[in-house]
Write the structure tokens for this entry.
Amino acid sequence: MNRNLQPGIHPDADKLSVFIEGAATAREQEWMLGHLAECAECRKAVFLMQPHEEIERATATPVRGWVWRRLVPIGLPAAAIACGLIAFFIYLRPHGSGAPNPQQIASVRQPEIEHPRTTIAPAINSERVAQSGGPQGSFAPGAAATDVSRRKNLVAGGSNLPALKKSDRATATLAASETSAGPPSGSVRAADAARVPSSNGTVNASELPFHGRNVTNDEQLSTPADTKGVASQNSLVMKKDLPALQIHRASGQVETLAGVSGRITDRSGAIISGATVTLRDAAGKARETTTGADGSFHLTGLPAGPYELMATARGFSTSKQSLDLKPSELAMLQPKLDVGAASEQVTVEVENGAQTVETESAGLGGQVTAEMSSAGRAIPMPSGLMVPATVSHGKKFLSLDGTGNLFLSRNGGKKWKKVNPQWAGMAVRIELTPAYTSEASPKAKNETSAPASEGAVFQLTTDTGAVWNSKDGAHWYQR
Amino acid sequence: MDIPPANITQTESSGTRDRTASVAKGIAPETELGPESRLLSEMLGEELWRVSGAELVEVSKAEFAGALETIGARDNFGLDPERRANERQRETFWRALHLEELAIARGCALGRESAWRRFLAQYQEQLTRAAVEMTGSAALGEELASALYSELFGLTEREGRRWSPLLRYSGRGSLMGWLRAVLAQRRVNQYRKLGRETALGEIEPAAAVSEQLELERLEDLRVAIKMTLSEASAEERFLLSAYYLDQHTLHEMSRVLRVHEATVSRKLKRATERLRKRLLRTLRARGLSRRGAEEALGTDPRDVDLNLGKLLQKSEGDSIPDKEGQV
């Protein structure tokens, strides 16, 4: 005890220092606090013992220490939002960085890869795809850019859309060669591919349109973002003036096979769909394909060497072009055809009015994106379902999806409206009336001699076999 | 420097008295040591002696061992008084001491010149600076430090014998902390001697309060405060006193309690709220209406804290129970 302070009641210096330095036991601490609460002298001594420093004086209130707590209600949501944004950008980043920009897509092509073991019948269905190893087993991985760059050509301008019908011959051609037909560009999921009417023959996978597209999963084909990307890429391609012959060397992969891709147009730049493209090598062996709705064609799995490419289309003169393919190269061509005989038509029809087949996408196990494009801009269908058939007359478009819903667009596919069914049963086929089937899209604008007496432009067949006609696509009457 | 050694006979004998007193207070019998049975084994004693560097300050093994045993017995090896310390607890206690500083303090108390040299080399400047800080004046600080030096040298006498406060240093805290505590106590003594009138004047606000309150209500309030404060914990009472009576800042209080400033703020706020509620409850239990109880504390919430401070100050002295004899 300290003699100078009141004896007996004050802790000595040793106990004070032990308390201040935190070396006191719990009991000592309790006793010391109790004493300090009562003893002003010892409190003063305790505070005097503290080493000197700049002391903030008197402004302190008990609330002061709670300032940071007041920030918690603001800070926590802000931190959560920030974390969410970061996570969102992290989520988007791989997609953004993984997918090349349109210009890259337009100029860089991945080499085509041959998969000779894969054989898929033209009557594509999910079972056969599975037997052939499935889409993923058939395609080389990591070449989404190739797929996208290729798909961009599938979406054509609206002027090319009316070429929807397919004849037997055309069907065979489609099945046996690389053809992208059907107005709404997109792809067909393997499961949906069962709806596609089968045809004859068996085609080597190297000749199938999906060969070498290197699709690894369905998302690459079916996601909306991807669809938009295709649309924008298509716009880019439409605006881009391709040289007559462009050869891009693929990088990073060692492939010995080459390919040819391109688009056939007339001298005015209008796309010609259904044109036959024949590629003949030096030995005379020919590979043939027809252009799709967007006028594009693709031939892959070609050995390197000199080739002669011949493009023919009804109503147009034949175009011939020589090219020398080098290993691992993809030649991009844009043959231009001169207008030939006026009586020729560029029409692809399917027997019995079968649904339009997107042969190329069907093998990819993709999904119908159900989009229409009139000016290079992809427009999703209202139902979002597969569109097996679409017909057009002028700016009027009629699309029939897999569930029998009929959609009408009066502005070239920009806006769609569902047509109220005025018929009994389910619509299974939509087509132009025979009087209008001869109207090819490029000429439709100039066609003024439509038989006004018949009136009806569109023809619809239900599952009961009833045939309905319509002039405008909205009002129907039974024939 | 020839320093007359302090008479340590008293220290040794006081150590024996301490042990005897401890036994009287109920400390375990085995802590009562005769000269022949020591708690500190020779091996451990020698090890601690070497570790402390006591040899360098001319403190013998026996002297150092005696100091260790005295300190251990006095503080019951850091245990509660009703508990006995086993061998391991004793060893832990001794090893946790600031042995080197304890050796210096003992050497100085024994008047060993080498110890004083080391003491002055290590602590003189710090001690003077601390004294200046406490007094706020270089002259007063140096005067305070000089007075302490003379006291530490053993120039004071107890019962006719010279005595050094360094003998009270236990080594549980740092020697500098102990020196600062001694300085602070001496400074408080100086302050008390010089400022009794001033201290009385500080109670004036309470007098103002008392003028506003009726005598009966004031008595109720005093009783309520006494009851309420007796229910509060020691820490709460310390916080209330340090904050409202001494006007210390949260920062200063946090340094004393070795906790964060925000913790002190939170505890103080809780203590204030709890005290106010208890006061209201107590006042109402004594027959006051709610309105009357709130008026007694001050109806304006902005004045509640201030009024509490005044009330606490008024309660000082007579409402807080005397703790004498608890040390």
User: Anything to note?
Assistant: Residues 1-36, 197-207, 299-306, 313-327 of chain B have pLDDT under 50 and may be disordered. Residues 78 and 93 of chain B are 7 Å apart (CA to CA). Chain B is about 70% helix and 0% strand.
